[in-house]
Amino acid sequence: MRIMKRPNILLTGTPGVGKTTLGKELAQRTGLTYINVGDLAKEGQLFDGFDEEYQCPILDEDRVVDELEDQMMDGGMIVDYHGCDFFPERWFHIVFVLRTDNTNLYNRLESRGYTGKKLQDNVQCEIFQTIYEEAMEAYKEEIVHQLPSNNPDDLERNLEQISQWIEQWMKDNN
Ligand code: DAT
User: Fold this and answer.
1) Is residue 18 in contact with ligand 1, taking CB distance under 6 Å?
2) What is the ipTM of this complex?
3) Is 15 close to ligand 1, i.e. is its CB under 6 Å away?
4) CA of residue 91 to ligand 1 center, whole Å
5) 18 is an annotated ligand-binding site residue
6) Does the annotation list 24 as a binding residue?
7) Which among 3, 16, 85, 120 is most buried, taking Cβ atoms within 10 Å?
8) Where is this region: LID (predicted)?
């Protein structure tokens, strides 16, 4: 039996923009596999040191890449992380950078319990479009797409667009 090839998708953007919400629902609708890199690191203790300023463990990027390599080669993965420049470029067929308006993001992060510098820095990360620029440098510009992620209508539109893109990719590549 010939195995259907499926694409790998990166969902990235500032914390709180809606990567997890979109990624989990997309996996349900398409049968692709959702991977949350933060959770994967916690489960496997894929950390290297501790960030005193932000009071959080530092991701061991090399071990994360090693851990995911085999699955990525099989295809059909949806990867969710708030950074994107340490993954091998060859892994991804398309990259989506989710974007949220500042006040909206501020409210989401505040209700997540973020305060002070952590809250400010994350909102600033979105204002300066840090992750979008990181993605544009790490991947071919033509595979990097920004998606508005402000409300349930945006979520539904994003789900439909990405599902359609996956379907088309599978027709073109099988
Ligand atoms: P991330 O994984 O990027 O950190 P999340 O999926 O956990 O973000 O979402 C953060 C919060 O925002 C969560 O309470 C769900 C809400 N949210 C996500 N996408 C949304 C959307 N399109 N419209 C309204 N709220 C959304």
Assistant:
1) yes
2) 0.99
3) yes
4) 25
5) yes
6) no
7) 16
8) 111-121
pLDDT, tens only, 68-102: 999 999 999 999 999 999 999 999 999 999 999 99
Burial category of 170 from C-beta neighbours within 10 Å (exposed 0-12, middle 13-18, buried 19 and up): middle
In whole angstroms, what is the distance from residue 116 CA to residue 74 CA?
42
Q: What are residue 35's phi and psi, to 5 degrees?
A: -125, 120
Tokens coding 118: 């952590």
Rg (CA), the chain: 16
Strands 77-80 and 9-12: what pairing? parallel
d(CA 115, CA 55): 13
Neighbours of 127 (CB within 10 A): 11
Q: Are 147 and 17 in contact (CB under 8 A)?
A: no
Whether the full predicted model's pTM is greater than 0.90, yes or no, is yes
